[in-house]
Design goal:
3-stranded parallel sheet; alpha/beta; 3 helices; single chain; globular
Length: 96
Amino acid sequence: QITKLGLAKFFVQVQVIESEKNEQHFKQALVVLGSNPEKVFVVGDRVEGEIFIGNRLGMVTVWFRNGKFATILPTNKEQVPRYTIHKLVDLLKVIR
């Protein structure tokens, strides 16, 4: 969907992880990108998963609040995203 919406051109690399995410996935992405965490966007639908991990590592977090996890709210400050979007196309407003 990222390619279909024309968003891929705004990123150096897009990784989609279908399995259960863990901190090692995110650290590996930083190594592959050779980038500082504050220049890496993490877009995820789970505040206790991707958003929590991204925040812990100092990444820019975007909660895609849509689907079955949309009603699961942050329970601590490490789960609070920097940005919240409801449609993937709204990511354009965040990255520009």
